[in-house]
Amino acid sequence: xxxxxxxxxxxxxxxxxxxxxxxxxxxxxxxxxxxxxxxxxxxxxxxxxxxxxxxxxxxxxxxxxxxxxxxxxxxxxxxxxxxxxxxxxxxxxxxxxxxxxxxxxxxxxxxxxxxxxxxxxxxxxxxxxxxxxxxxxxxxxxxxxxxxxxxxxxxxxxxxxxxxxxxxxxxxxxxxxxxxxxxxxxxxxxxxxxxxxxxxxxxxxxxxxxxxxxxxxxxxxxxxxxxxxxxxxxxxxxxxxxxxxxxxxxxxxxxxxxxxxxxxxxxxxxxxxxxxxxxxxxxxxxxxxxxxxxxxxxxxxxxxxxxxxxxxxxxxxxxxxxxxxxxxxxxxxxxxxxxxxxxxxxxxxxxxxxxxxxxxxxxxxxxxxxxxxxxxxxxxxxxxxxxxxxxxxxxxxxxxxxxxxxxxxxxxxxxxxxxxxxx
Amino acid sequence: xxxxxxxxxxxxxxxxxxxxxxxxxxxxxxxxxxxxxxxxxxxxxxxxxxxxxxxxxxxxxxxxxxxxxxxxxxxxxxxxxxxxxxxxxxxxxxxxxxxxxxxxxxxxxxxxxxxxxxxxxxxxxxxxxxxxxxxxxxxxxxxxxxxxxxxxxxxxxxxxxx
Lengths: 423, 162
Known about the structure:
The structure holds two protein chains of two kinds.
Chain A: H1 6-14, E1 25-29, E2 32-36, H2 40-47, E3 61-64, H3 74-89, E4 94-95, H4 104-110, E5 119-122, E6 136-139, H5 142-151, E7 153-157, E8 161-167, H6 176-187, E9 196-200, H7 209-217, E10 226-228, H8 233-242, E11 261-266, E12 273-275, E13 283-285, E14 296-299, H9 301-304, H10 307-317, E15 327-330, H11 335-343, H12 346-352, E16 356-357, E17 378-381, E18 397-400, H13 403-412
Helix pairs in contact in A: 2-5, 6-7, 10-12, 10-13
Chain B: E1 3-10, H1 17-20, H2 31-35, H3 46-49, E2 55-58, H4 70-77, E3 82-85, H5 90-99, E4 103-105, H6 107-112, E5 118-122, E6 127-130, E7 135-138, H7 144-151, H8 155-161
Parallel strand pairs in B: 1-2, 2-3, 3-4
Antiparallel strand pairs in B: 1-5, 5-6, 6-7
């Protein structure tokens, strides 16, 4: 009998089983249940249908209003009020009000709520982000969130896995976003459907934690159940800094674990990569991109709103100016990142370059507010989805790219890479 | 629900949750309100044409994207009795079972069934019949555990019953 993947080992341990195999249905104990202002109100309504009231553990639930906050309209305000009152009623430890909040998938690792070996579900598809730290984390819906909050358990079909052997070192303007867009372009938006995406290899040491968060974050865009990285010195240093009081458990795949497919990703061979409308798999590199004029740039989101992302964008924008007629919107993903960006002078760089800086919100990524697109407008965005109508009008267009490409595009007013600015 | 019968609305690959229910309507959790905007960005006529019991047939990766349970809720509240697809995105699949929206994976049915056909489904056997063409297809059966959730009409009822 073959061994287990890293993901399977975490699932087995949380189900109290020595061994699980792909396809097996299990019930497992959860370390954290997450919800936001869109998904939690539906879960809170479902929770009321349980015969037993209350939550399984007030310390193991995280409620992060982040999508439409600060409240964008009355209905959003009512949803946030529902979440706030639920948090107070149940004495939820990890409720993050405006002023403390950030975009959930940047916030929770920063707050030390996600560590290696954890089993995490979240009513948000990008919950897979925490795999960067060696946790098994996956997105679910509101009913699963309700059941998770009530019982501390969830059912899982044990996934098989695809292995990505990462080698080499990326060049200056290539970052985690280019890596994951390249992979999605290669395997397609359902290329990892129901499967784990397990990243291994000597090249991982050349990826920052923020690169890894970006890569794990977009596993869902390939249909993946989760994305997961090995726990190396960099990941351990991150957890010691952010979660000094949490014990973490390091799992490694067995040497004889079986994979449905294996790919080698040579970081040194990658170049800035852009996903054209209307699917993340529709990727292009600049050798086959003609002039594409744009109207707006968004730099932020759970995918690319971290400090590394802002540093890269600021480096490109230093001594440059946003082109006339272009709106460049920068959104630090958490309050802490915002403050750090301020202390490092990045915010000054953005404002002097003619960009605007918003408080943390998912806002424009899902066409909520703070950068909704009009008919036929084009946006270069560091977000994660470029579906029809995702950021506004159904005939608007989204080009998904790295912070470096987004910033360079803001300067030229067309889809561009930093080398076009002599960088 | 043991069976369903209705007229088919036909869609292609990768129907995402943003077109099933655009995020601009996610400030509401009301099923009837969500149903008014179901499929709006991919098929403006869907809401005015759909009748109670009608069926959606699509190609691969139906429901990809966001975890919003509002998507299957909107489809169910619009009156749709079943979604048949070549494959489903995993969160949508899970959410549909959890809220009691019948969904069936069947590549052959998705290949053959055309928009406007009348289709009936027997949920016990998983047999899909295109009454317009007379062709039948065997849909993939649910594992017993999921069938129990479906029989309980959703995850919460299933947990409560245990």
